[in-house]
């Protein structure tokens, strides 16, 4: 049994698109929140310590939301890049196979007993062994 990984480009691309949409929604929603929190210095809290704390909280909230937005967008872009890389790797693999050496015996043609297969090194012969 051969083990390996199976990837689905459309799933990767869809996950990337979903993350990009989430980033856009997050930015839109946090923009409204930041607008509500911003500018507390001009309210009843004015130049009080509470107003200054609210302004610092707004700065911190803006920074945190910016980092999270960038991470969501970066993850979405990363998924999309993985899908593109996978497509390129698949195309490279197909091109390599298509440009490969002539078909080996067993792939439609059989070698005569004792014949050397192009691209292989000669090895010991075992009496009665079938050619590989």
Description:
It is a single chain. The protein is an all-alpha fold and 132 residues long. It has helices spanning 9-37, 49-98. Helix 1 (9-37) runs antiparallel to helix 2. It is rod-shaped and about 75 Å long. Mean pLDDT is 76; it is low at 116-132.
Q: How much strand?
A: under 5%
Mean pLDDT equals 76
Overall strand count: 0
Largest sheet: none
Question: Helix coverage percent of residues?
Answer: 55-70%
Helix/strand/pairing category:
mainly alpha
Order of helices and strands: HH
Shape: rod-shaped
How far the N terminus sits from the C terminus, by CA atoms, comes to 21 Å
Count up the helices.
2
Secondary structure: elements and pairs:
Blueprint: H1 9-37, H2 49-98
Helix pairs in contact: 1-2
């Amino acid at each position: 049994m051969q083990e390996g990984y199976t990837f689905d480009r459309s799933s990767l691309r869809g996950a990337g698109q979903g993350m990009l949409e989430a980033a856009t929604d997050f930015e839109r929603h946090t923009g409204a929140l930041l607008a509500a929190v911003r500018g507390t210095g001009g309210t009843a809290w004015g130049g009080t310590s509470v107003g200054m704390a609210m302004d610092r909280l707004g700065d911190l909230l803006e920074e945190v939301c910016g980092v999270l937005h960038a991470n969501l967008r970066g993850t979405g872009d990363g998924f999309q890049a993985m899908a593109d890389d996978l497509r390129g790797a698949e195309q490279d693999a197909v091109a390599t196979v298509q440009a490969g050496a002539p078909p080996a015996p067993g792939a439609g043609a059989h070698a005569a007993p004792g014949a050397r297969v192009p691209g292989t090194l000669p090895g010991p012969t075992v009496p009665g062994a079938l050619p590989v």
